[in-house]
Amino acid sequence: MNLLWENVPFLLKGAYYTLLVTVVSMFFGLIIGLVVAIARLKGNKPIRWLARAYVSIIRGTPLLVQIFIVYYGLVDYGVTLGPLTAAYVALSINVGAYLSETFRGAIQSIAKGQTEAAYATGMTPWQTMRRIILPQAARIAIAPMGNTFIGMLKETALVSAITVTELLRSAQLLIAQYYVYMPFFLGIAAMYWVMSTVFSFILERIEKRLSRVY
Amino acid sequence: MMIQTTGLSKSFNGLEVLRSIDLQVAPKEIVVLLGPSGSGKSTLLRCLNGLEELDGGSLEVNGVQVDAAMPARKKQANFREIRRHTGMVFQQFNLYPHKTALGNVIESLLTVKKMKKEEAAAIGERLLNRVGLLAKKDEYPSRLSGGQQQRVAIARALAMEPAIMLFDEPTSALDPELVGEVLEVMRQLAKEGMTMVIVTHEMKFARQVANRIVFMDGGVIVEEQSPEIFFQNPESERARKFIRQLQEH
Predict the structure, then answer these.
(1) Do residues B110 and B122 touch, judged by C-beta distance below 8 A?
(2) Rounded Cα–Cα distance for residues B246 and B215 (Å)
(3) Got the DSSP string for B161-188?
(4) Does the pLDDT at position A212 exceed 80?
(5) Where are the domains of chain B?
(6) Is B175 buried (19+), middle (13-18) or exposed (0-12) by CB count in 10 A?
(7) pLDDT tens digits, residue range A113-131?
(8) A120 contacts B157? CB cut-off 8 A
(9) Average pLDDT along chain B, 249 residues, taken 10 residues at a time
(10) Measured between CB atoms, which of B88, B140, B157 is closest to A214?
(11) What does the pLDDT average to over A49-58?
């Protein structure tokens, strides 16, 4: 137990990278998800097909394989990314595919009359999307988005495999040094749990506030 | 003419809903479209501002022309121009639930006309006052009755200073006791000289307010008539049957 306490600062640094990878990937994943959702709903045929293929491939293959392709695979084509950058890229692309499905469903759930009312007052399709549809869709999407975010927080453990020293790899390094497993694994499990719980709490608050508005 | 359609046609999945409609509406005229359900009256109304695509023919609304044969891009641009000068009121109100009553009214002033917020708010408050709902300006639609929602929707349509107002069964989704307040606002608009095309089942209102009844059946205009003659002694057999069925209720 003492071993764990002594090494808490080192683990906290790992937790910092876990958070960083989660937040950065979630941010770019949101943008990708939104663009892909709109592409699937409003794009012409080749664009819709491309968006569908992207979602299908990402959702149909293991995240670890995607991470390896970005980090190791791309080297064959002269693209060498640092571990952290590769983690951002792979996770953003991955979470973007899942979020695009969430957004697509949320956008489709907004009644057609909303679009018609906006069009009838002279708004363009883009203005209608931005001012009328997306704000309503966001409220519907917020709960599943929160789940994706928390899932993401835990999945970042996979990027330890490409030497990003996040929480899991921090623990592995300590284990290699001290030859004891349990305190470190239990320690990081507790840290993951605390982070998930805190985020759940924050997301619940946001959800409540959004549902109070109207 | 404020509105003129020539040979307007529309089909849904091969079913002809409008067959070569020629309709004219003069400035300040109030035209009520009547007919059994499925006669095409709502579809005709929705074609006028391009919510339904035309399959054939052409129309001119407030000086802007759209021809079914135009390239899609040109059609869209012209319809957008038409919509800027045409207000529409829907059966289901279609208020934006995430915006307050005032927010609903001023939305297109902000986005389409790019007005400053204060300027738009002043106009919005004046319009809400006109429909008797200034006190409710900060309420969200979910807190308003159906009648109040529809009056906000009318104020929203008026905000763009339309030359023409289109009403698509504006009272059909309302509880009977709320119909009156909406019709009252429409009567007021008529008095002020607004050009209006109205699809409704409110026969008494049609009789009192319309300058002309356009009776449709099976996707064609069967009879155009003054309300006095139409309700007492229509020319066509189909209109007579329609009136008879109304009286049986």
Answers:
(1) no
(2) 14
(3) --SEEEEESTTTTS-HHHHHHHHHHHHH
(4) no
(5) 1-85+163-176+184-249, 95-161
(6) exposed
(7) 999 999 999 999 999 999 9
(8) yes
(9) 96 93 97 94 96 95 96 94 96 96 97 96 97 96 96 97 97 95 96 96 94 96 96 94 86
(10) B140
(11) 97
Q: Does B94 touch chain A (CB under 8 A)?
A: yes
Which of A117, A124, A135 is opposite residue B98, by nearest beta carbon? A135
| Residue A208 pLDDT | 87
Render the burial of A15-54: b for 16+ CB within 10 Å, e for the rest.
bebbbbbbebbbebbbebbbebbbbbeeeeeeeeeebeeb
Asked whether the beta carbons of residue B98 and residue A122 sit closer than 8 angstroms, the reply is no
Query: Which of B49, B90, B156 comes nearest A113 by C-beta?
Result: B90
Taking the C-alpha atoms of residue B106 and residue B100, their distance in angstroms, rounded to an integer, is 10
pLDDT digits (tens, 9 = 90+) for A67-104: 999 999 999 999 999 999 999 999 999 999 999 999 99
Report which secondary-structure segment, H or E, holds A120: helix A112-120
The model carries a pTM of 0.88
The token duo for B31 is 């035209």
Task: Residues B1-85+163-176+184-249: name the CATH superfamily.
Answer: P-loop containing nucleotide triphosphate hydrolases (3.40.50.300)
CB contact under 8 A, A119 and B98: no
Please give the Cα distance from B17 to B11 (Å, whole number): 5
Burial degree of B244 (CB within 10 A; 0-12, 13-18, 19+): exposed
CB-based contact B51 A124, cutoff 8 Å = no
What is the least distance, in Å, from the CA of A121 to any CA of chain B?
6
Contacts A118 to B, Cβ<8 Å: 96, 107-108
pLDDT at A148: 94
Would you call B167 an interface residue with chain A, using a CB distance cutoff of 8 Å?
Answer: no
Cβ of A116 within 8 Å of Cβ of B156? The answer is no
Alpha-carbon distance B209 to nearest alpha carbon in chain A (angstroms): 24
CA pseudo-torsion sign B7, B12, B15, B18: negative
Query: What domains can you pick out in chain A, each with its CATH number?
Result: 2-213 (1.10.3720.10)
Q: Are B112 and A122 an interchain contact pair (Cβ–Cβ within 8 Å)?
A: yes
Please indicate if any CB of chain A lies within 8 Å of the CB of B9. no
Taking the CA of residue B229 and the nearest CA in chain A, the distance in Å comes to 34
Percentage of residues in chain A having pLDDT higher than 70: 100
